[in-house]
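Workshop exercise sheet. Pairs work together: one partner reads the sequence aloud, the other fills in the structure field after running the prediction. Swap roles for the next sheet.
Pair: D.N. / O.F.
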Amino acid sequence: MSADRFPKPPNGTPDPGGRPTVEYYHHKGVRVTSRYLRVGPDLYELTELTDLMKSRGSVHPGAMVGVVISAAEGLVIVPMVGVLRTPVLWPLAVIALLVPCLIGLGCARRWPAQYELVARYRGRQVTLFTTRDQYEFGQLCRAVTRAAEAHLENG
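Structure field:
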């Protein structure tokens, strides 16, 4: 999924209606307030964000390679061991199948798929935030949801 990023310089305009700005989340350069979402230098007005979506990125290539190699080896090694019926081949076959599985599992755990927060901003689809940390992503999504709901209530 490709998305464009639209940086917007911060403006010092007060909140319409004179209401104070409420901060819902502030961590590692990401800030969610009752008016905007700031991710690093990019600023997005909450009133202009629509169609908020959560998505997951793709799996690490090492994990996919491990699965493919295990499947290919399984198709070759298992029939070969069954035909030759040599007891020494069984431990070798298990090791040959286990190594790519463990490497794939290690890659999947070390580099999990990214969590992405995507929305429409000024008519274009943008990726607002990406992380591999599920906890951090959940906190940010809840903060954006609370800010958007509070904005709708205060209208």
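Discussion prompt: The longest helix spans residues 61-84. What would you look at next?
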